[in-house]
Write a structure and sequence with these properties.
heterodimer; A: 580 residues; 5-stranded mixed sheet; 4-stranded mixed sheet; 23 helices; 17 strands; 45% helix; B: mainly alpha; two-stranded antiparallel sheet; 15 helices; 2 strands; 76% helix
């Protein structure tokens, strides 16, 4: 009897623990489900709000801050907290909006990890604020779903009061395609960059100092790259007297891109290599011979110790450490690139230069660069369908697409938060005179001058180093003030100019797609496939699986996971997007 | 050789083994704590590159300096202390009487009531209904929400009930009743004084729960002045991830990335200091309450 009781109580205790633990993980799953349930009941109530636009015609093309509302209106705003979101309400930017535009913004920030639950709760309890801003993880699909359920304002009805957005959409059809949903509505605004071309280069860098130390030229073909990396490994490339502490190539999705492109795989995703050929055929390159040969090459590098051994487990902090301590000569996108690349904060010490695609395979005779996407995949700003001030908000959004508006969102206002500083003859925004107690001008900019992340979705050249980079002479690019200020970006500009001279082909990555009813099916397929591909990628590179023996089973596995169906869905989505 | 083995008699050998095993356990338990202490006073670069193992490298107190300058943290400290004290008091005020009532055999429908309680342990309303409930009670963005929400934990109630049922003899209650006590008096004058052990245990359970809680605050509180400590800690800890996220964000400039990286470095610097600052109060209270565990926790007949 006693024994039974004991067992029972142990079981009970165990059950309690599991339910307690389960409780933590479940919160998101349940909230997701209930949101769909509760939103159906709401859909009929809101999809209206077709306010007749009675705009006094001041559309003479002026881009200045015209007062949007005569009487100051107050609108609410919510978003996920980024570093400084807690200070949104105190920013000069928002204070000036109240003064200049007549719009007082009352912002609330939520913990970024709680944001998705919070959003679900706001939707479920009909408490959506006027504007959702500073979003970073809202996909086109989410937006389409919320929009169709009637939560979001369709901005396309207000395009006649949004001359600047209209102009941009006409000028850049890819942006128009992205923000216009399949039903013709515009439910939100995505980030968009009209910056110089070199901005689109992927961040992959090699150290000229290392090349000089081993006495070699910058590699152009894959064979040359191999020789260079080998020399890095065998010689004292970083010049500290130790020939064994060099990591020739720091593995990352980015540092592999130029190699990947050489094999005709024009992808900018580290796991699933998706692309569309000239005829608009969608392809998954992970099942091609191109990819197999690519893996052979990377496997060779790995086997010979030319890639860091901890390639697949290393943390980004550790990577930064390696770069700062001068332990590696070929790197991809890492924060320390922008920190100054070594402990002295001196860009010129390692002399990093930007790398474009390699050549020298049967798949590709030309150097290729797959550009960074100008259109941000996520949606930054959404407007509630229930807002009292749809037109004013539309005008506010349009204002942010002007030069003044864009700068107000990224840097504030001239004379209040910054002055234009002359660098090599080009005006560049400079906060130094205003920072007061803040520890750096960047701290001032993100904490006080602007409400960081809320509205800076339109990236322009004006007032930034990009204006200078675009126009400056090539020989001035890598020296003096320009190099000091622009650093990594200056090397990118140089690489871009060289690439144009060489006739490098520039390609666009796959645009972000959205799905209709097949969205859920696609999501399941994608998760399976991408996880399997990521694992297989590692296994093939480390040699745990053999590229000759195990390749066929790998292909079979992918087929079994429904790769064909996945491709079909993606192709449809792509066709839909292009048909818009 | 033989003589030595003779000298170490069985008993001593046993003692020796126990000492060795306990020492090993002691080190296993102690090392992570020491590691955190070492990391908190080491140069963050050294920590990141894995140089800190057995003692601090590049000793610096910058982290603590930064932590003490971080004003929000102290607001959070104040709030957490309030939530912990008020919350635990309310928890006890509800759990103990409830558990006592449930332990009495003469309570009508006791089993049905218990079933009712048990169901809530396994099936909860879910986030959205709870949120709507909190909202309609007007508790959104209110300090009381942090105190009232989860006022009783059924698990703790069962623990207390078992204690009452097993360690307080019926006779004493009968005697009290004969002397003229009503139920309230019995509870106040007899049961409570006899239940210091279980009260201590509950204080510990509930107290640490409140001290470590952040989820409710994250969901129901908007005003930063009401945030508990843990929320600010999280805020600092996740700062280190923004730089990484921003890498793929097209609107983030190089300078901003550098700033974010700087923040992330700061966060790394403060990380371990924060862990220490936020656990010190618990470390002081824990040993004081721990002695109650020896007699306190019993579920069924298993002593835990």
């Amino acid at each position: 009897m006693k024994k039974r009781k004991q067992i029972l109580s142990v079981l009970l205790a165990a059950a309690m623990v599991t339910t307690m633990l389960g409780g933590c993980g479940n919160a998101q799953g349940t909230s997701g489900k209930s949101s769909t349930a509760s939103s159906t009941s709401k859909s009929e109530s809101t999809q209206n709000a077709v306010v007749e636009s009675t705009v006094e015609s001041n559309d003479d093309g002026t881009e200045d801050s015209v007062r949007i509302s005569e009487e100051t209106i107050e609108i609410t705003l919510a978003g996920p907290a980024s570093v400084t979101t807690n200070e949104w309400n105190e920013s000069v930017q928002f204070a000036e909006y109240e003064k200049r535009l007549g719009i007082k913004i009352n912002a609330t920030a939520y913990d970024s990890e709680a944001w998705s639950s919070k959003l679900t709760l706001m939707l479920a309890s009909d408490e959506l604020p006027d504007i959702l801003a500073g979003l970073t993880a809202t996909t086109r699909e989410d937006v389409y779903k919320y929009g169709q359920e009637g939560y979001l304002l369709d901005l396309s009805q207000y395009l006649d009061v949004m001359p600047n957005l209209t102009r941009i959409m006409e000028e850049y059809p890819e942006y128009a395609r992205h923000i216009t949903m399949e039903n013709g509505a515009i439910y939100g605004i995505s980030p968009f960059s009209v910056r110089i071309e070199s901005w689109n280069l992927q961040d992959v860098y090699m150290s000229q100092t290392w090349l000089d130390n081993v006495g070699m030229d910058a590699p152009e073909t894959l064979d040359e790259l191999y020789e260079v990396l080998k020399a890095f490994k065998e010689q004292d490339a970083n010049g500290n007297g130790d020939t064994d502490d060099e990591i020739p190539m720091l593995y990352s999705a980015y540092s592999c891109f130029p190699i990947l492109w050489a094999y005709g795989i024009y992808s900018t995703d580290g796991k699933l290599h998706e692309m569309v050929d000239e005829d608009g055929n969608y392809m998954v390159m992970n099942v091609t011979e191109n990819y197999r040969d690519y893996l052979r090459y990377i496997h060779k590098l790995y086997k010979e110790g030319l890639i860091n051994e901890d390639a697949f487990v290393i943390s980004s902090d550790e990577k930064d450490q390696l770069i700062n301590n001068g332990k590696t000569g070929y790197v991809g996108n890492v924060t320390s690139i922008f920190l100054g690349l070594d402990n002295e904060g001196d860009y010129s010490k390692q002399k990093w230069f930007a790398v474009t695609g390699f050549t020298g395979t049967e798949y590709n005779s030309e150097s290729v660069v797959v550009e960074r996407e100008r259109v941000g995949a996520n949606f930054r700003v959404l407007v509630s369908a229930d807002t009292k001030y749809p037109e004013e908000i539309a005008k506010l959004i349009d204002y942010l697409f002007t030069v003044e508006g864009a700068i107000s969102a990224s840097n504030g206002y001239e004379g209040l938060t910054f002055d234009f500083n002359d660098i090599e003859g080009y005006p560049v925004v400079d906060h130094t005179n205003y920072i007061g107690d803040y520890e750096s001008s960047e701290a001032y900019r993100t904490r006080k001058a602007t409400s960081r992340g809320a509205f800076n979705f339109y990236s322009i050249n004006e007032g930034t180093i990009y204006d200078m980079l675009q126009n400056i002479d090539t020989d001035k690019l890598m020296e003096g003030e320009c190099y000091k200020v622009a650093g990594a970006n200056a090397t990118k500009q140089l690489a871009w100019r060289k690439a144009v001279q060489k006739g490098v082909q520039f390609k666009k990555p796959l645009p972000s797609l959205s799905y209709g009813d097949d969205g859920a099916e696609r999501a399941t397929l994608y998760t399976d496939i991408v996880n399997y591909c990521a694992t297989a990628n590692v296994q093939f590179i480390t040699g745990e699986r053999d590229l000759d023996k195990d390749w066929d089973t790998y292909l079979e596995e992918l087929e079994k996971m429904g790769l064909q169906r996945y491709i079909e869905i993606q192709q449809n989505a792509y066709d839909r997007l292009m048909g818009n | 050789m033989k003589t030595i083995r003779k000298q170490i008699s069985g008993d001593k050998f046993f003692q020796l083994m126990v000492t060795i095993i306990l020492t090993v356990f002691f080190i296993i338990e102690l090392y992570p704590m020491l590691y955190v202490v070492f990391c908190s006073i080491s140069n963050p670069d050294a920590v990141a590159s894995g140089e800190v193992l057995l003692w601090p490298v590049g000793i610096t107190l910058q982290g603590y300096q930064k932590v003490f300058q971080y004003r929000d943290l102290w607001i959070g400290y104040g709030n957490t202390i309030f939530y912990t004290l008020a919350g635990t008091a309310l928890n006890l005020a509800i759990t103990l009487p409830c558990a006592y009532a449930m332990s009495r055999k003469e309570l009508m429908g006791r089993n049905q009531l218990m079933l009712f309680f048990m169901i809530t342990m396994y099936v909860s309303g879910g986030l959205i209904p709870t949120y709507l409930n909190v909202k309609s009670f007007g508790l959104l963005d209110s300090r009381w929400c942090m105190v009232i929400l989860g006022a009783i934990s059924v698990y703790n109630m069962i623990v207390a009930r078992t204690f009452f049922a097993n360690s307080i003899p019926d006779e004493i209650i009968e005697a009290a009743r004969i002397d003229g006590c009503n139920d309230f008096r019995i509870f106040g004058k007899i049961i409570l004084p006899l239940s210091k052990a279980i009260t201590g245990v509950l204080v510990l359970y509930y107290g640490t729960g409140h001290w470590n809680a952040y989820f409710d605050a994250m969901i129901y509180l908007d005003d930063r002045k009401k945030f508990p400590l843990q929320l600010f800690l999280r805020e600092i800890l996740i700062q280190s991830k923004f730089a990484e996220e921003a890498l793929t964000d097209s609107t983030v400039s190089a300078e901003e990335l550098a700033y974010l990286a700087e923040l992330s470095k700061n966060a790394d610097l403060m990380k371990y200091c924060i862990i220490i600052v936020s656990t010190v109060p618990l470390m002081f209270i824990y040993p004081k309450l721990q002695k109650f565990f020896e007699k306190g926790v019993m579920i069924g007949s298993v002593k835990g």
